[in-house]
Amino acid sequence: MKLPRPYTVSEIANLLKCRYEGNKDQLITGFNEIHRVEPGDIVFVDHPKYFERALTSAATVILINKSVEIPPGKSLLISEDPFRDFNRLSSFFNPTIYNTTPISEKAVIGEGTVIEPFVTIGERVVIGKNCVLHSGVRILNDTTIGDHVVIQANTVIGSHAFYYKKRPDGYDRLLSSGGVLIGNNVEIGACCTIDRGVTSLTIIGQGTKIDNQVQVGHDTVIGKNCLFASQVGIAGCVNIGDEVILWGQVGIASGLNIGSKAVVLGQSGVTKDLEGNKTYFGSPAEDARKKYKELASIRVLPEIIEKLEM
């Protein structure tokens, strides 16, 4: 998330009531979780396993729970609870606003757009021209929708991310201060759920078509002209190229990269990055031809064993 103006390290330290190490006048222009961090950002880390990744990331300032060697050009914010203080940044710079009317007076809705009854549109929402929002659609805060977009009944766009920290007495949610960006000529089926970014954007590229009952996790970026069949489930922070096809009930784990023009056949489970221009099948998903050969071999295995025992 970008800040409304640059803040110094000392200003943010005062806001969070924590101490800092490094240049107190170093400028901060935003904050992001580790998958979407950029130069000028704050990133948080609270486990030694991930210290190196955070310290060597593009982040300018690291919100961390202990003093460590400071990489050149960076600063530290030392916090007893970085997760809590990252949430405090979200609450301060982008506080949650709950809808009190079905359609926010501040929503911007383009010419020719059709909104059926029982649609809810939140704060800081922009909807383009000639869109159709069917009954029961919910467009939540910080969502931008392009032109000629169709969203079928009871779909929810911009719900909070499924991102929690385990505590001794339960789970704490990481607050979502990002948004959703949907390109032109996108079609989204009924009863789909698209989470907003934690601090960045969940993006659906131009021309992509999504069937009913599809889940898209936070901060996932989907390319142009993709085709997703029913009951596809995509976890957070996945990068999907252009013209990717995911057939029914495909599941994709978080933080993966799917190359352009990849095809993943139905009921496959994707657990690692996939190259583009190939067809995949199985769980874990592999090259479809290789997987079919394996299945054929398994079918004749009892016959082979029977001959060996004779």
Automatic annotation (TrEMBL):
Origin organism lineage: Bacteria, Pseudomonadati, Bacteroidota, Flavobacteriia, Flavobacteriales
UniProt entry keywords in alphabetical sequence: Acyltransferase, Lipid A biosynthesis, Lipid biosynthesis, Lipid metabolism, Repeat, Transferase
GO molecular function, one term: N-acyltransferase activity
GO cellular component, one term: membrane
Domain of life: Bacteria
GO biological process: lipid A biosynthetic process
InterPro entries for this protein: Hexapep (IPR001451), LpxD (IPR007691), Trimer_LpxA-like_sf (IPR011004), UDP_GlcNAc_AcTrfase_non-rep (IPR020573)
Entry protein name: UDP-3-O-[3-hydroxymyristoyl] glucosamine N-acyltransferase
